[in-house]
């Protein structure tokens, strides 16, 4: 069974597996509360999967602008 999007594709957008997991989990909780999505056409049935699809399409990203 192949998961989509693949971890390799996702790591092109988010360079840390820890950040990827944290960001997708937070976004999944947000979607569960608001029922609002950043993409219209998604394949996953679960919130974490939809969050990963949003990251893959560049709609959800992490910026480390701490300065």
UniProtKB/TrEMBL annotation:
It is an enzyme of class 2 (transferase). It catalyses: RNA(n) + a ribonucleoside 5'-triphosphate = RNA(n+1) + diphosphate. GO terms for biological process: DNA-templated transcription. InterPro entries: DNA-dir_RNA_pol_omega (IPR003716), Pol_omega/Rpo6/RPB6 (IPR006110), RPB6/omega-like_sf (IPR036161). It comes from Pontibacillus yanchengensis Y32. This is DNA-directed RNA polymerase subunit omega. SMART domains: RNA_pol_Rpb6 (SM01409). Promotes RNA polymerase assembly. Latches the N- and C-terminal regions of the beta' subunit thereby facilitating its interaction with the beta and alpha subunits.
């Amino acid at each position: 069974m192949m998961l989509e999007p693949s971890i390799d594709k996702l790591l092109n957008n988010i360079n840390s597996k820890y950040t990827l997991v944290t960001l997708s989990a937070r976004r999944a909780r947000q979607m569960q509360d608001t029922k609002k999505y950043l993409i219209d056409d998604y394949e996953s049935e679960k919130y974490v999967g939809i969050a990963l699809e949003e990251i893959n399409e560049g709609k959800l990203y992490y910026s480390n602008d701490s300065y």
